[in-house]
Amino acid sequence: MEINLTTNTQLSANNKIQKSDKPTTSVVDNNDSKPLSDSEVKVLVTKGNEILKLTGRELSIQMDPELKKPVIQVIDQETKKVVRQFPSEEMLNLAKALEKSQGVLLSTVVK
Of 25, 50, 77, 109, whose CB is crowded by the most CB atoms within 10 A? Predict the structure, then answer.
């Protein structure tokens, strides 16, 4: 299940950005959902960037080459520095370390 909170800006049905006076919340049940296609992800990133431009930020989604998992970054347009990242660098490093240690544990033969 995913809970989305949108504040100040919304994307209308005709893809126009609108200001909102109050936050809105939506709940999406992802239990029956299938993975998004590449084209669907590109559309979502484009729409997200349209909204984030109002705040001077942009969205970047890349695949981590080792984990083969998406890494989402919010980047300041002026400085090009990463403002937020999901999952964080710490979590990525932990996942990589766990994956490496799992390989060592599974390759050890118990006699």
Answer: 50
